[in-house]
From TrEMBL, chain A:
InterPro entries: BSD_dom, BSD_dom_sf, Tfb1/GTF2H1. Residues 123-172, 197-249 form the BSD domain. It comes from Punica granatum. Residues 584-603 are annotated as: Disordered. GO terms for cellular component: transcription factor TFIIH core complex. PROSITE patterns: BSD (PS50858). Pfam families: BSD. Residues 594-603 have a biased composition (Polar residues). One of its GO terms (biological process) is DNA-templated transcription. This is BSD domain-containing protein.
UniProtKB/TrEMBL annotation, chain B:
GO terms for molecular function: zinc ion binding. InterPro entries: TFIIH_Tfb4/GTF2H3, vWFA_dom_sf. It is found in: Nucleus. The lineage of its organism: Eukaryota, Viridiplantae, Streptophyta, Embryophyta, Tracheophyta. It holds the Pfam family Tfb4. It comes from Punica granatum. Belongs to the TFB4 family. Component of the 7-subunit TFIIH core complex composed of XPB, XPD, TFB1/GTF2H1, GTF2H2/P44, TFB4/GTF2H3, TFB2/GTF2H4 and TFB5/GTF2H5, which is active in NER. The core complex associates with the 3-subunit CDK-activating kinase (CAK) module composed of CYCH1/cyclin H1, CDKD and MAT1/At4g30820 to form the 10-subunit holoenzyme (holo-TFIIH) active in transcription. GO terms for cellular component: transcription factor TFIIH core complex; transcription factor TFIIH holo complex. This is General transcription and DNA repair factor IIH subunit TFB4.
Length: 603, 295
């Protein structure tokens, strides 16, 4: 199907509310085309699957028409409503899914390749590799970063992913899909579809329903295992079953008894479930004797209008000989509730009835074995279940404990960082010069007095400020004022970034991302203890200085009206890089000092 | 001042109190020499005096060991044209400044160690506020006072309490404290002072154009300021100094009674004498109040 092509009648909508234009949807190879019935060029489509990033579809049985919603990389969506209903939609959906996967592989082949070239010291299983490729494919930013840093040789594959463990974990945890339990609707509520003319009724059975029937009615399960296919076909089996069900639903115990007498297989379905009865007896023995099970008069709301299920025990005859063929609602409800709460224990693809039945039998046996081996096990399990009522899906993902970094004023932060860096750099360099001048109060006061007498003798300078300086000051002030005005008037949501031309914006964002990545690696490799780290830091520093110059170029290249905003943005990056460089230089000096001292000290 | 009541003070008459930093240790290491700085300032003062004939200028020198008034335009009697080189008030001011520096030097005990010491900003702020209070009480009509700190020395955390008190007093009497900081790092004290009192804090980037900054930003009277767009500081360093060691701290202990700030836990508040319960202190020290060393 994926290799061929799919042609379906469909209605193409640009949005959910759009009435849409009917036409022919054709999917073939790597393209998707739509020809509207009425010549309407706006509705005509020719889309490459490479641009399609994802798809959504309406669920069968949700009461909505069969819709397939494709979204492309620009966030635009194409909605198709299929005339042929869900069957057509599923075919198209599968086709799209395969096409997207294929195009993804071809376009991402380049960055994915180096994944395979792994340094021998790291062993990555296939699963993780796939996870990484998937992440890269989904996140184009990450992919860009990966391309620049890993393929550019700045970071190794392992280093790059080491900082993204959390991302990988989250991705892999997402993979374990939520397990589906049984529906809380009762099977007896499945109403047969009648065509109204003949007496024929049709029950539609899905493997899911069958599994539920087996789980709720062990006798049916037992019968299925023993009869099908040796004694009767599957179809016959279910026909008989529903016949029995139908008899039950007519609430005619007498008729049921009569039928049962004629057909012994049918009788199995009509009689009480022996297995169930045995289980029930076992359970009763385990019930906490202090529980008061007597129902209150007030609990009985079944007789109120709009309550209850469409079976009414009240009307049923109760004659002792037919007792066997009567089923009470309480039985059904209890059993159903128990099964739903127990949850689905069978982990098989719900495809074939036979496999379902066998799988269920296996799990039952295992359970039984457990139960037999230790009578207390059940009790313990119950306790455990009640204790572990927290539902995994509803819990927030467990993040590693971390404190959010909150910088009120980034400028201050960077300023202080720089000051610290300067301090570390050596108080000998700058500190001494200052201290020397400050150390001698006599000199200090003397120089100050000299300045005063100088002014006194020379007088005021004729132009107090040179016009060049004054102009510069004016410029700086206007810029400053316009900037603060600009900042104050806008909300923080739309940043100056949005005002920039797209290319500059993307470049800046990309540089920012790579700077962050590099800096993270840079700072995390201090203190340098091994030569490996040393080499890494050197590599990182080179890459950072490259970006530094690139930033300068961006700053120069942007149009004049955006220069101010860009320079503000770039300055932050430069400051972050500067402090890293300073640290590097300081460390370098320390190292060289140490290595030069060593021989002197030891020789 | 005696003639004040007879004068007709409009709402655009200012009383400008300039606090001049004369810390010799700062000026000996400043990129802008004091001679240049003072000539910018003198030109600015002259401008202010000429903007309105009733404008009044008071200059207070913020020294290293003491502070003093070095110029008051209302008491300057002879309005002679002065020598050819500069107006008379300038030579008066310089004369006074020279004397002040000499006195400041005599008071110097020579006990300071390391770095650039701070000058007595708290003292000069208090003097300025005293002067302004005197003006307030001179009559119903008076010029609108404002304070301009021309400062370069780093903050002296030991003056924290005094400076904050001065700031709050200025805030109460609605006197804006403008500050023009010419030192290397931003001054947290002056940032806070300007922020709290509604003044303008500015750190000029081009020191050679200081006069331009002064005349553009600080020359206008308070009334006209309402219609001007003056530079706003983007961020203010709100860090406080602890009362016990006078260190600038990010996080600390606060006395629940008098709101004194401490960098470490004390059994008893040194300001108001409240005794802190032991049990509570245990909880406090383990839970939310963590001490962070100053950076």
């Amino acid at each position: 199907m994926a290799s061929g092509q799919v042609v379906k009648k469909a209605i193409y909508k640009t949005s959910i509310k759009d009435p849409g234009s009917p036409g022919i949807l054709k999917m073939s190879g790597d393209r998707l085309t739509f020809r509207p019935k009425d010549p309407n060029p706006a509705a005509e489509l020719d889309v490459n699957f490479e641009t399609i990033k994802g798809y959504k579809n309406t669920k069968e049985g949700s009461g909505k028409p069969a819709w397939l919603n494709l979204t492309n990389d620009q966030g635009r969506s194409y909605i198709f409503q299929f005339d042929g209903g869900y069957a057509d939609m599923h075919i198209c959906r599968d086709f799209v899914g395969k096409a997207i996967a294929k195009s993804g592989e071809t376009t991402k082949a380049a960055p994915a390749k180096p994944d395979v070239i792994i340094t021998p010291d790291e062993q990555i299983n296939r699963e993780e590799l796939e996870l990484r490729i998937k992440l890269l494919r989904e996140d184009s930013e990450l992919q860009k970063l990966h391309k620049q840093l890993v393929i550019g040789g700045v970071l190794t594959e392992a280093e790059f992913w080491a900082t993204r463990k959390k991302l990988l974990e989250r991705e892999s945890s997402k993979k374990q899909k939520q397990r589906m339990g049984f529906k809380s609707a009762m099977i007896s509520d499945i109403k047969p579809a009648t065509d109204g003319r003949t007496n024929k009724v049709t029950f539609s059975l899905t493997p899911e329903i069958i599994l539920q029937i087996f789980a709720e009615k062990p006798a049916v399960h037992q019968a299925f295992l023993s009869f099908v296919p040796s004694k009767m076909t599957e179809k016959d089996f279910w026909t008989k079953y529903f016949k029995a069900e139908y008899l039950h639903s007519t609430k005619n115990a007498i008729a049921a008894a009569a039928e049962a007498a004629e057909d012994e297989e049918l009788a199995i379905f009509l009689k009480h479930d022996d297995i169930l009865a045995k289980e029930a007896r076992q359970k009763i023995r385990r019930v906490d004797p202090t529980v008061n099970m007597e129902a209150d008069q007030g609990d009985d709301y079944l007789h109120l209008p709009d309550h209850g299920i469409f079976r009414d025990d009240g009307k049923e005859v109760s004659e002792p000989q037919y007792e066997l063929y009567r089923r009470t609602l309480a039985h059904d409800l209890n059993r159903h509730a128990a099964v739903v709460l127990e949850g689905k224990s069978v982990e098989v693809e719900l495809e074939d009835t036979k496999t379902v039945a066998e799988a269920l039998a296996r799990s039952k046996q295992a359970e039984l074995a457990n139960a037999d081996s230790d009578a207390n096990a059940d009790q313990e399990q119950l306790q455990r279940v009640s204790r572990m009522t927290e539902i995994e899906d509803l819990q927030a993902p467990r993040d590693p404990p971390l404190a959010l970094l909150c910088i009120k004023d980034p400028r201050d932060y960077f300023d202080s960082q720089q000051v610290n860096a300067v301090k570390i750099l050596g108080e000998d360099a700058m500190g001494t010069a200052k201290r020397k001048s400050a150390a001698n109060p006599r000199d200090a006061f003397g120089s100050l007095r000299k300045c005063i007498s100088e002014v006194k003798s020379v007088g005021l300078r004729d132009p107090v400020v040179s016009s060049k300086d004054a102009f510069q000051v004016f410029n700086a002030l206007t810029r400053d004022i316009s900037r603060t005005k600009y900042d104050v008037g806008r909300n923080s949501q739309d940043s100056a970034l949005d005002m920039l031309p797209n290319i500059a914006k993307e470049q800046l964002l990309h540089h920012w991302a790579s700077i962050q990545e590099l800096l993270r690696h840079f700072w995390s490799s201090y203190p340098i203890t091994t030569s490996y780290l040393y080499a890494k830091v050197t590599r990182l520093k080179d890459a950072m200085s490259q970006i530094y110059t690139q930033l300068e170029e961006i700053k120069k290249s942007v149009p004049a009206n955006h220069k101010q905003q860009v320079s503000v943005l770039v300055r932050q990056m430069h400051q972050a890089l500067d402090s890293a460089f300073q640290h590097y230089d300081a460390d370098q000096q320390k190292r060289s000092a140490k290595s030069s001292q060593r021989p002197n000290g030891y020789v | 001042m005696a003639s004040a009541p007879s004068k007709l003070y409009a709402d655009d008459v200012s009383l400008l109190v300039v606090l001049l930093d004369t810390n010799p240790f700062f000026w000996s290491s400043s990129p802008l020499p004091f001679s240049k700085f003072i000539s910018h300032v003198l030109a600015f003062l002259n401008t202010t005096l000429r903007l309105h004939q009733l404008n009044q200028v008071v200059v207070i020198a913020t020294g290293y060991n003491c502070c003093d008034y070095i110029y008051d335009s209302s008491s300057a009697t002879n309005q002679s044209s002065g020598t050819g080189m500069m107006p008379a008030f300038c030579s008066n001011l310089l004369e006074k400044l020279d004397k002040f520096v000499t006195r400041d030097e005599q008071l110097e005990k020579g006990g300071q160690e390391g770095g650039i010491a701070s000058s007595l900003l708290s003292g000069s702020l208090s003097m300025a506020l005293c002067y302004i209070q005197r003006i307030f009480r001179s009559g119903p009509l008076h010029p609108h006072p404002r304070i301009l700190c021309l400062h370069g020395s780093p903050d002296g955390p030991e003056q924290y309490v005094a400076i904050m008190n001065a700031i709050f007093s200025a805030q109460r009497s609605m006197v804006p404290i403008d500050s023009c900081y010419i030192g290397a790092q931003n001054s947290a004290f002056l940032q806070q002072a300007s922020y709290i009192t509604g003044g303008v804090y500015l750190k000029p980037q081009i020191l050679d154009g200081l006069f331009q900054y002064l005349s553009t930003v600080y020359a206008t009277d308070l009334h006209s300021r309402g219609s001007l767009q003056l530079p706003k500081s983007v961020g203010v360093d709100f860090r406080a100094s602890c009362f016990c060691h006078k260190r600038t701290i990010d996080m600390g202990y606060i006395c629940s009674v008098c709101l004194s700030i401490f960098c470490m836990h004390h059994k008893k508040c040194s300001t108001c004498g409240s005794v802190f319960g032991q049990a509570q202190s245990d909880v406090a020290s383990t839970s939310n109040k963590r001490k962070t060393p100053d950076t």
